[in-house]
Amino acid sequence: MKTITILLLTATAASAYTLHEWGTFTTVAGSDGVLLTGLEREEAPLPTFTYSHYGLENGNLRVAPDEIVKEHGRMPILSMMKGMDRPLRGVTVKMETPVIYFHSDKAFDVSVKVGFNGGTISQWYPDRSGGETLPVPKARKTVDIKDVEDWAIDFTKPWKGSIEWQARVLSPEESRNTILFKPWESLHWMRPRVPEANAVRTANGETEGFLFYRGIGAFNPGLTTTVGADETLRLKNRTGGDIPFAFVFEKTAGTTRWMVMKEGLKAGAAAEVPVSGFTESSAAFDETVYREMVAGLTATGLLESEARAMVETWWNSYFAQNGLRVFWVVPEAKTEAILPLEVSPKPEKSVRVIVGRSEVLRPTTEREWLALSQDPDKNRREAWANLCSHDRFGLAYLKRLEALGATAAK
């Protein structure tokens, strides 16, 4: 019996580790709270060594062009917009930069599977061992435009994505001696690395400080945001669980303002954020914003280094761009429902912090854009067209003005 007991303890110790994850669900809503489509435009391009489905590369081609032509009969259109070469419909959510960390005293082999209820996992690294497959164009000398419909993705219909990895989690000593640097890596790629995490290596030798994936889809993360004529932001938690932390932020020309909701928002609860409720600053970089966001993420279970990595990775996108947005931590059960995670061996503890990033349009902004789009001055109309063509959420803005125009015509 003593021998059996020792063996059981040894087996338990070998698989005792902690898994941490962070990422973002980004949405854009009109002042009426309706989520807008058109979120397939890329915000932070990935390095060329990452992987993707055909037609979702966003300019990141890791395979020689002649090989692509040989396999598919044509080259994808290299663009900063997903769906330029693979038509996408109904995209209401961008799932940005989920990274999975492992914290272990020992090396071990791990199997990871992530599902995506409502979306497709479009990009990843290291290379996966399995997961969803998407239709691709057949090799032929000429491609009829009608063929494109055969490999379009329509997110107005149910969609389930997935990805799988078989990997080796390296020991702390092996991790320290591993070179993670890669030529052509971007700042967005380097910042998620944290010194405490074990390095991960796949069978093909690809090594990184995390498992990375990104996706697009259509679902409602669960926080309803509306702004009335009084310009008060109203929040309603419809996630089915408690939101543990929220941070409301707005940036306009020369001014930033914010409100911290350290207690979050209980399931089913509502909150109002009037303009007078914000703390305001004219500083180009206010440390309070950084510290409050890091503190809120750390309180949900991330290491401080991981929280800092998330904030620094997305700082320019989160806090340097004009607009009103709400950052809120998705309840654990909601995260699991959208992104079911299967890991073998199971972690002793897991912390999954997916941040909902709800971009919100104010009525005043909508009216300004509507007037701009209809302005008799050609230059002003062109300014509006350029905004829609180049802004990360330009396609969503167009959808909102279409809805406003249709309402006004009634």
Automatic annotation (TrEMBL):
- What keywords are annotated for this sequence in UniProt? Signal
Q: What is the residue range of the signal peptide feature?
A: 1-16
Q: What is this protein called?
A: DUF2931 family protein
Q: Which species is this UniProt entry from?
A: Luteolibacter flavescens
Q: What is the lineage of its organism?
A: Bacteria, Pseudomonadati, Verrucomicrobiota, Verrucomicrobiia, Verrucomicrobiales
